[in-house]
Design brief:
Blueprint (H helix, E strand, L loop, with lengths): L12 H23 L12 H10 E4 L1 H7 L8 E3 L15 H19 L16 H9 L8 H6 L12 H9 L20 H7 L4 E8 L3 H12 L4 E6 L2 H4 L8 E2 L2 E2 L19 E16 L5 E9 L8 E3 L4 E8 H6 L4 E7 L17
Helix pairs in contact: 3-9, 4-5, 5-7
Amino acid sequence: MKKYSGHCSRRNARCLWRQIAVFCCLLLHSVTGLAIENYPTGLTEPSEAEKAWMEEHVIKVDPKTILSQSTAEALPSRVVNIEFLPKVGRQVWGACAAWASTYYYKTWQEAKEHGWHRPDPAVDPEHIMSPAFTFNLYNGGHDLASNPTAKSEALAEAPLPQSSIPVEFGYLTIYGAAPISKMDANLHPGILPNADQFYSAFPYRAQDVYELDYTTDTGMEALKTHLASGDLATMSLILYDNFSDYPADQPGIDNEVFFANGGSKYDSWCDNPPCRAGHALTVIGYDDDKTYIGTDGQQHSGAMLLVNSWGTGWGSYLPEAGESGFVWMGYDYFKTQTDGIANYMTDRINYKPTLVGLLSTIFY
């Protein structure tokens, strides 16, 4: 019997096309396995150097200060900050912190300043900030998980060490973010920004980065007050298996409200699994009247509204947005089962750099 070697002669066109078909099927399986069947996360714990940077640069806010500055007699029962939010997108790499702070929050901030209503990557990519800009800077050309706060401060001061959520904000304060018309949102993390992309990022720098502890009733009320003022925030949590199946009703989920963890810690795709199950999202609102039946069998009310970076094929449909990709989290779960820290930033309104330099080095 003639043994099949896996090679085709030039004359055997049928064999050649069969091999091409097999290759394409394997490639499709590989791509869909990464981009469709799995939902990447990517949040890491801040390093000691990042924690030191955060202590110096991130402003910790007393919840009572936010409440004392509010001029509203009473908070609205429902807030959905959607007008300037970009269309729901999908991360490919472990860049959840960059998507939360740069793609959603920084885009929303600039859209609000310039009057860009619901920026759409397919229509006006020049109005959407690229998460790859801060993510690739943070990782120095590697797909390492990142932290949302430093990505915002990249948008205001001196160079940062590599880091996590606060570090994401940090890059936003220092460098800003290039729009996706200049740098694709899911550009390979091994590609660092070039000079043109840096130039396009500078006008979109952030001003300051803030940290709010919402693990108390006062903290939750302060965060809701912050959202009711027309602002956003980022947060983080450890994911469990049932989060990827949201919004299907199952233990921990009822009436599209996520209120309890279920299963094991979620291990998303990565080069060397298992990965840390940390994930960052953007908080865009709340609803005091959103009800669900909890694990105690009783009806509960109230949920925070967040936007995720897993595309429109996942999550709850939000009528105000006209698309899916959102998640409601019960107040008690949000307050007690997440990382408990919200980060937000201020914008540099009408900012235009007055002096930009380019340093070129020739190696011999």
